[in-house]
Structure formats: C-alpha cells, structure tokens
Amino acid sequence: MDEKVHAEYLEHASTRSQPVESYTDIDEKRLLRKIDLRIIPLFTILYLLSFLDRGNIGNARIEGLGESLNLQGMQYNLCLTIFFIFYALMEIPCNVILRYVKPKNFIPITMVLWSVVMTLMGTVKNFHQLMATRALLGIFEAALFPGISYILSMYYKKNEVLVREAIFFSAASMAGAFSGLLAAAISKMHGVGNYEGWRWIFILEGLLTFVVAVGSWFCFPLYPSECKFLTPRERDFIESRVKFSSNSGSANVEANEIVPVNMGETNANDKKWVFAVFKDWQAWCMLMVYYGVCVPLYGVSLFTPTIIKTLGYTSTRAQLMSAPIYIVAAVYSILQAWISDKVGLRSPFLLFNFLCMAVGYVVCLCIDPRDFPHTIYGACFLIALGIYPAFPLVVIWFSNNLAGSYKRAVGMAFQIGIGNFSGAFASNFYRTQDLPKFTLGHALELGFIVMGLIFMTIVVLGYIMINKKRRKDLAKGVYADYSREGLFGHGRQEPALRLQIVNTL
Predict the structure, then answer these.
(1) Domains of the chain: total
(2) 3-state secondary structure of 135
(3) Cβ atoms of residues 5 and 480 within 8 Å
(4) Is residue 279 part of a domain?
(5) How far is CA 222 from CA 38, 164, 219, 243, 433, in A?
(6) Which domain holds residue 204?
(7) Within a 10 A sphere around the Cβ of 381, how many other Cβ atoms?
(8) CA 67/CA 253 separation, integer angstroms
(9) pLDDT tens, 18-37?
(10) pTM beyond 0.85
(11) CATH number where 70 lies
C-alpha cells in the first residue's frame, strides 16, 4: 500500500476516530461492571418471564388442558401457531417505536398487558377463547426481545455484547427448567377454587409477571445518552466507545496486517435504512440461518415435556425431567458466548451448534423411544446444547455487521420478527397421530437445520469475497477521500471494518 495514501487515509479518519482515548480518567472495566449489574439481571428476569409465559402452554397440555377444553385434531397446534403469527408481525413495528418512545415506558407497559392476558388465560372455557388470548399474548410480547437486544447494542461494543446477550437469553433455557419445576408444583393445586391444575399454571405465572413488570418500570434503563445511573461523562464515554468500536478484537489482528481506524457509526434516523435492510443480501441469508436455529428452538421448548412423557413417565416426572436439559444448555450458552467474544469468532461456534442439533435429531429419527428411552433423553441434551447457544450467536453475528443504530434496530427486528414465523412452523410439526416417534416432526426440524447450515456457508463465503475486495480497494486508496456518510451509503459497515468470520483473523 502506498505510504502516502495510507497516511492520508489515517489522517482523514483520525479527525473523528479517536474520542475514546480522551477519557483516561474513566475506569472502563469498573464502568462495565456497573452497567452489567444494573442491566443484565433485570433483562434476564424479564426474558425468563417472557419465555415462561409463552411456553407454559406445553406444561398445561400434559396437565389436562386439551381434555378440559375438548381440543380436537390440530386445535392445540393452532393455538401455538396464532401466537407466533402475531408475535412475528409486531416485532418490526415495536422496534421502530422504540426509536421514538422511551423503552422505560414502552416495554414495562407491554409486559403488564401480556401478564393480564396470561392470567385471564387461566379462565378460558373453549378453543376460541384460548386462541384469542394466545394471539394477544403474541402482540404484547413482541417488543421485549428485539428491544432488549437493541438496548444492549447501545451500551456494549461488538465484541462484548454476545456474552451479555447469552446471559439474558440463557433465561430462555432456564425458563424451560423453571417452567417444568413450577408446573409440577402448581399442578398440585388441582381443585383449589374449583380450578384444574393447568389453570393455576396460567394464573399464578401471569400474576408473577404482573408484579415484576410494574417493578421493572422503576429500574428499566434508558438509552446511554439519558441513563440516570451514569454521570454525563460516563454517558459520553459509553456512546463514543460503542460508536467507534470495530468488529474485530485484537485477538483477530495479525502483526503484519494494516488495520485502518474505524470512522465511527452514524445514528441518523434515515428511513432509507428500512429499505436498505430489505435489499441487503446478508439480511435474507441470515434470516435463513436464523430459521435453522429457531424452528428447532420452538419445537424443543413447546414439545419437550410431551416427548419426555411419551417415554413412559408420568406428567409430573416428565415436567421434572425436562429441567436438567435446560440447565445444562443455559450454562453452556454463557460459556460459549464468553469464548466467542474473547477470540472474536462467530461462525466456527455456530457450525458446532448446527452439528450438535443435527446429530441429536438423527438419533431421534433412528431410535425407537419405546426400546431406548434413555437414548432419546440423551439426544434431547445434545439438541439443547446446539440450539440455545446458537440463538444469541446468530442474532449478534448479524448485528455486528450492520452499521448505524437505526439500520441495526430495523435489521435485528427484521431477522427476529420475520424469523419468529418459525414458531408457527414448529408448532405444527409435532402431531398427536405421530406418537411416540414423532418422525415427521424430527425430520422437518432436521431439514431446517441443514438449510441453516447451507445458508451459513453462503454468508461466510460472501464475507470472504467482500473482505478480499475491500482490502484491495483500501490498498489502492479508493476510500481515502470518503466521508463517513459516504462510506455508510454502501449500506453496511465501512470498508475499514472487517466482518467477523474465521477467515479474517
């Protein structure tokens, strides 16, 4: 690379690329611990309740919901499907609203609304009432996950956010464990107030969410620029370090590699970024990768108690035996995310997750649960070890490669929102007539896993070609005179940023 051109590029970039260095009076690690303690526990509890409330219908089913409401044929599956349709449709609108309405108000309000719906679900008398409450639950739950993910991306650098997201997403797997244990206990209330045990599952868990939702309003974090528990200087520092962070941590930088200075991100609320997401090839490919993770995720979360019960256990024993699967998955999710952030890699870990899922479902397809129930139970562990760590990983990998807070907000809602139609698919895979092997359900889940693996390969190869071209252009000085807005006009991270894949060490 021509030294003069390189020097000019660095000089041009450095006029607005080194703000973090001026905050030498701030202890960065101490500040991050302060933010972690204020944000992560709250988000973890909120997401645990979200997953608990959407998934407890699986626990209610094995406690007699279907018999009480006289559900016929695919009616139970339709009640699962309607939730995901409305949940997916509302995700993008909710995340756009979060750009104009303070999350401190919007998210707790939606939580209060879904907690009321959850409680009322315990009083339904027929299929149609259950359908209506599930639809409303999907509408009101839609804001939480993309909202939390977006807020995290405003506080943490790209190589810090995965482990935080994995911690709060581990609440999803812990919800599976907690739900099974809680349902086993609550079901003992059968007959109290002339209500069946499954009704008390909905009522008590809804009331719990209501109490937490009201309390969360008093401690819910604002955006960094308005955050009350940070000093004005700390707010500026957090915004600067996030805006001027790069995709690649030092672990990925070779000694002989030229790593240009990041010029920062633009936070412009330009509506063109909405259309930019829909025209971005990586958005559609990453959506398919997301389907490869989410379809198995919802299949596992909704049907694991039923699958375990078919192995010959009582309903209470099935509730309890599902708990260890989720606990192991939660611990590994955090461990994998921590390692991924440390080494600055995403795709190798995602590959491992897909392989775990695939092997687990192949075992379920090849083994008869009536002959080898413990083998099927072991396969459930393997599937969970693949699914739960992969979910935050695929979300953060995509987020890392979207430039600008507005495009990132829309892009994450696009992936999560449209991707959550996967729940509508998965909720119809496991049919009563397929008991006890569930061959159709397992085969369809495996098919989506293979699809996700294929599109992940396409994304990696695409990133390799893009990075190769950008390095050549950078060496030629093509970007030396670009403004920050001009670079962002390309619709992705500026060329100075390398995309996070194993091939860009």
Answers:
(1) 1
(2) helix
(3) yes
(4) yes
(5) 11, 17, 9, 17, 49
(6) 37-223+273-504
(7) 16
(8) 60
(9) 445 577 888 889 999 999 99
(10) no
(11) 1.20.1250.20
